[in-house]
């Protein structure tokens, strides 16, 4: 789960979306597909390291995220670093991103108080200067 490259993650996500779409578009059409697809809660966290060039600090954060990936309510996770893409709308100022998928908000709420998550914050929070979180729910 944790060891997927960004390219593998995107390819797997695209395949899953395509299979879900094709399976859901039977005789009842797109409306039925929308009603049958489970909703997802997305939790995306961006970390700015205090010492962004320090590889030891980055390694500690990545090790902490690997441990954090064992929380039972996480459906899927991805860890990444800024891409080399360069357009005006792209923010590459962060050090590490942490993308999580949950079944619903309740599972994400459970993750927030999970002892593994609380320990991660305790052990790793001294590594970063800033964290921004974007949560979204299916509509």
Describe the 3D structure:
- This protein has helices spanning 6-24, 30-36, 55-68, 105-113, 115-124; strands at residues 41-49, 74-80, 96-102, 128-137.
- Strands 2-3-1-4 form a 4-stranded antiparallel beta sheet.
- Mean pLDDT is 84; it is low at 17-33.
- It has 139 residues and is α+β, with helices and mostly antiparallel strands.
From the structure above, extract its key features.
alpha+beta; Dabb family protein; 24% strand; 5 helices; 2 domains; 139 residues; Dabb; signal; 4-stranded antiparallel beta sheet; globular; 4 strands
Kindly estimate the percentage of residues that lie in beta strands according to DSSP: 15-25%
Mean pLDDT: 84
- Portion of residues within helices: 40-55%
Number of helices: 5
Derived from helix and strand composition plus strand pairing, the structural class reads alpha+beta
Q: Return the CATH class of the largest domain.
A: Alpha Beta
- Using the alpha-carbon principal axes, give the shape: globular
Overall domain count: 2
Low-confidence stretches: 17-33
CATH fold-level label of the largest domain? Alpha-Beta Plaits
Largest sheet: 4 strands, antiparallel
């Amino acid at each position: 789960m944790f060891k997927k490259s960004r390219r593998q993650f995107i390819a797997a996500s695209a395949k899953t979306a395509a299979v879900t779409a094709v399976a859901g578009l039977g005789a009842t059409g797109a409306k039925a597909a929308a009603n049958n697809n489970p909703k997802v809660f997305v939790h995306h966290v961006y970390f700015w390291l205090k010492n962004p060039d320090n590889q030891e600090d980055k390694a500690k954060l990545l090790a902490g995220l690997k441990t954090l990936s064992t929380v039972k309510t996480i459906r899927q996770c991805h860890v990444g670093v800024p891409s080399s893409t360069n357009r005006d709308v792209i923010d590459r100022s962060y050090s590490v991103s942490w993308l999580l998928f949950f079944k619903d908000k309740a599972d994400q709420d459970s993750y927030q108080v999970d002892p593994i998550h609380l320990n991660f914050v305790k052990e790793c929070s001294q590594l970063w200067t800033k964290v921004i979180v974007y949560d979204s729910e299916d509509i």
